Amino acid sequence: MMTTEHFAALSFVARMGTRKKVHAFVRVKPTDNFPHEMIRYGDDNKSIDILLKKDTRRGVVNNQQTDWSFKLDGVLHDASQDLVYETVAKDVVSQALDGYNGTIMCYGQTGAGKTYTMTGATENYKHRGILPRALQQVFRMIEERTTHAITVRVSYLEIYNESLFDLLSTLPYVGPSATPMTIVENPQGVFIKGLSVHLTSQEEDAFSLLFEGETNRVIASHTMNKNSSRSHCIFTIYVESHSRTLSDEKYITSKINLVDLAGSERLGKTGSEGRVLKEATYINKSLSFLEQAIIALGDQKRDHIPFRQCKLTHALKDSLGGNCNMVLVTNIYGEAAQLEETRMVKNLEKELALLKQELAIHDSLANRTLVNYDPMDEVQIAEINSQVRRYLEGTLDEIDIINLRQIQEVFNQFRVVLSQQEQEIESALRRKYTLIDKNDFAAISAVQKAGLADVNGHLVGEPDGQGFGLGVIPFSFKPGKKIKSKKTFKDQLSIPVRKEGASSPLSTKELDISPSKTQLILPPRDGDVKDMRDRETSSTEPFPSDSPKEELRPPRPSTPPSKPVAFEDFKNERGSEINRIFKENKSILNERRKRASETTQRINAIKQEIDTTKEALNVQKALREKQGEYENKGLMIIDEEEFLLILKLKDLKKQYRAEYQDLRDLRAEIQYCQHLVDQCRHRLLTEFDIWYNESFFIPEDLQVALKSGCSIRPGMVPINRVVSLGEDDQDKFSQLQQTMLPEGPESVSFYNAKVKTEQKHNYLKAITGLQQVNKK
Ligand code: ADP
Ligand code: MG
């Protein structure tokens, strides 16, 4: 429950805050209806009080009472990302350049804003979080500290179920590590063997690494089925500095750990098994070990600090105690809807507890083992879903009945699984079937030659022993099934051909069959064509939730539109979201550029004025020297005019410096925005290409290759067999497409590279097949 989580989080941060070395802050997630009467901040903004209304019916005059009070270093309410950085991170980062290790951690319930605080919005410069800002600060300080040679390295580690993952291992020059990573201690500190550490000489490189890691974080949550809210992520900036002037001076090394902790909500253990239970146990343990370690650090009597109890504290060992700066930000939700009802909830809880006890007695009388009656959480529901799947697959013999709630959920999940399977079958059919024009006799005879249809035009089933064929025919189209009905050849010529990617479904009615036109269509099925179309479109939807889901593809035209025309369509439909972001970023970029150019103009104007003033001063000085200088007790006497000029010059120089600093900041922002714009553009184009090929083409290069290599026209051969992947690959790819594609340019290029390799591979396979057929 939210209330409990609030108190748990607040008391955690307050307990940590009492430790000398730890600075504890609370950041409250903004909300429209903040319960001011219930959550109060101290005047110094260094405490949070939770107030609960007393029962007014009892006639208490002062109907408020402080129920809980927590002391902290600061409360960040409605705080901008700027302010948050200034408050919690700036000093830690600046001291890192003097050799102090620093750790900044975000703690709190899932959804309360940890990642927003740490990483921020990766599409919006203004809302960037502590991570990119820390990198900017580090590079800015390096620029200022010309006396020192400073190198910066970064790494990005994820800890999930007590296993270590390198979030930057996808970089081409890194590659996956052969052995699992281990935490190693040496006199210099703690390091992680096997974790890639990347030298970055400029801000932009560092940003790229950050984006790469962020992308991998999201990808991993899909492909490895990891729940990203259940892992700890540590981005580390390693700084190494030595004086350029004093050759004997030692190196100063330090690290800044920026930690996005796993969600602190207590995960239900009851009813969960396997992976889920493991996750729950590991998170609960690692967060409480973290607490123990920090408490032990603050306790002077303790000489043993339990760092090695879990990977999190072990990895942070040299950045938690001693000379380290440590900041803990606890993110909490601003809503406290449940706070108001706490009293009522408490009563209901009491009642519920009684009822549960009673049920337990019943259970034990009825010889049933301990049963849990709590509502299902998402973890438990997922578990039931998996049970249902296993049951349907036959790997689970029966699903034990536990209680009414569970039975209801089992039925519910049956429905979920069933409708998912329906969708899968339908889209599989759509991938595999296509129609060849019945008037295109060349096509028909080619297909007959290839042994795919018999002399009557009836389809031959599985292409046993053929050099190339149609792949596996779905059950409903296998010989002996309905497909062999008494339809005439003309009605019947729906050649099952495997088809790549998204398609343009058409019903037979919509299909305009004219000679020499070949169109890909779905095998006509009564009534549900539209339904299937919707489903498939959403199942291959490359954009996350906020883009239009139910996109209806118009029929595939016989001649595809030109790319510029198609691009316009794409930007209004499938690509609208990315296009919007792209335009938004571009306008931010332009605005910054404009400001930078204005600032440059101002700087030039100031510079000119400085020059003029200097000249005027020189004239004055010369005049003074000519007239003979006045001196009074060793002090030079100058006249008012000269004095004013000096003041003016000083003021101008100050302005100049300020403007110059602004310009530098603007340039950094421009660089960052440019990066985002490039990323967006790249993604927009890549998505478009994929969409375009899927919508209008089987790849052109393959058509060309086939034309020159074979006697059969490309449109009539089951060309999709040529470009299609094996059954398993196909599944892998549709998964890849769904999971990786939305996640950013790095994944797109990964996906592209992979698809290209596989297509090449399959193309070669198919060509060999075709040649064998030709020989026959
Ligand atoms: P967590 O990492 O703790 O699970 P997130 O950082 O992902 O939570 O936040 C959940 C959602 O709330 C995100 O969409 C995020 O953009 C938004 N959000 C969180 N904190 C803020 C904030 N201070 N201002 C605006 N949006 C926020
Ligand atoms: Mg998060």
UniProtKB/TrEMBL annotation:
The record's InterPro entries line, in alphabetical order, gives: KIF6/9_C, Kinesin-like_fam, Kinesin_motor_CS, Kinesin_motor_dom, Kinesin_motor_dom_sf, P-loop_NTPase
From the record, what ranges are coiled-coil?
A: 338-365, 589-616
Region annotation Disordered: where it falls in the sequence:
499-570
Write the protein's name: Kinesin-like protein
Write the record's keywords in alphabetical order, separated by commas. Answer: ATP-binding, Coiled coil, Cytoplasm, Cytoskeleton, Microtubule, Motor protein, Nucleotide-binding, Phosphoprotein
Its family?
A: Belongs to the TRAFAC class myosin-kinesin ATPase superfamily. Kinesin family.
Binding-site residues for ATP, renumbered to this chain: 108-115
The family database entries (Gene3D superfamilies) matched by this protein are listed as:
Kinesin motor domain
> Where in this chain does the record put each Kinesin motor domain?
21-355
Compositionally biased intervals (Basic and acidic residues): 525-538
Does the keyword section mention Cytoplasm?
Answer: yes
Top-level division of the source organism's lineage: Eukaryota
The keyword Protein transport is assigned to this record: no
